Fold:
Amino acid sequence: MKSRATLILAILALEVAMKRYAVVLSALCILSTADNLAQEPKGRSGAGAKILEMFQKADRDGDGKLSREEGRLLPNFAEIDQDRDGFLTPQESRTGIFASNDRK
Structure:
């Protein structure tokens, strides 16, 4: 009986350890993804920083996104607005501008 109870406790301890491992692994994946999204696409040295600088100048109200009015000089605003919320985030701007340049 004692060995059966010990086995059950060992299985429970292993299950708890596996859940902790899964949580840590998930957190690492999320952080890695966020870091990758923040980096410039390969071969675009300095371009992302320039786009961010232009984005910040156009963001007149400083809310961290561009309204249609603030982005009025972008002829493809609707195309760049990936989530169709009527605003451009820095990530949408950078991704959209690189994509439109790649199509040219």
Q: What stands out?
A: The helical segments are 2-38, 47-58, 77-80, 90-103. The beta strands are 66-67, 87-88. The chain has two domains: 1-39, 46-104.
